[in-house]
């Protein structure tokens, strides 16, 4: 395509460009010595000027209704297809029972361990209540950041209040137990999400996991004999953090995404 053919074909677009645009300047510089291109650019510039000064009447209500009808129809169809309410977790109804069940499993797993009466039962109860509250709030993803931040803060505060020494005490058993408890609400949400063909934002799964891990930490508050700050932060609060991270990865599993996309 020659320069003249290109300028004449794109005259309207070139005329609409700002005066300082290099492409527009080059086109008008060429048009100064080319009559057909100059005419095309002048006509296009005149049309743009007329359009810029034109005052169009607002669309009628009938026209707006006709334009909106297909959009609203598609929206209504999508709402009817959706098995959960907008903004809610695909498995929120079972997250709370799953967290409670996880706490029961944690108690059973540690039933043969020592009971630590010197540890504060009120603190363990507080952790359990925050876990229950977090499981309840997991229904709404818009509270995800606040819920996760609150649960992490409570977990960290409990670790700091419980620590009595600075020695190095490894506790992979505590970490594994918290992750096992967190796996119950995560698995419940994943199963329901796949069954219903909906994959919510990762925040759904992360809140459920944090609530489960916090329930496990509540049990450890009564059962774990360790007292070092390293142990509490690394394996108690660290378990909550790791559960949140695992849940975020699980929410992005290709198989889970494919299950929702196929519905």
Provide tags for this entry:
74% helix; single chain; elongated; mainly alpha; 263 residues
Report on this structure.
The protein has 263 residues and is mainly alpha-helical. It is 74% helix and 0% strand. It contains twelve helices and no strands. Helix 6 runs parallel beside helix 10 (202-223), helix 7 runs antiparallel to helix 10 and helix 8 (144-162) runs parallel beside helix 10. It is elongated and about 95 Å long.
Offer a concise description of the structure:
The protein has about 260 residues and is mainly alpha-helical. It has helices at about 5-10, 10-15, 20-30, 35-55, 60-80, 90-110, 120-135, 145-160, 170-195, 200-225, 230-250, 255-260.
| Share in helix | over 70%
Content of β-strand: under 5%
**Helix-and-strand structural type:** mainly alpha
Mean pLDDT: 76
Largest sheet: none
**What is the tally of helical segments?**
12
Radius of gyration: 31 Å
Q: Give unreliable regions as ranges.
A: 78-88
The sequence of SSEs as H and E is: HHHHHHHHHHHH
Determine the N-to-C terminus distance. 48 Å
β-strand number: 0
Shape: elongated
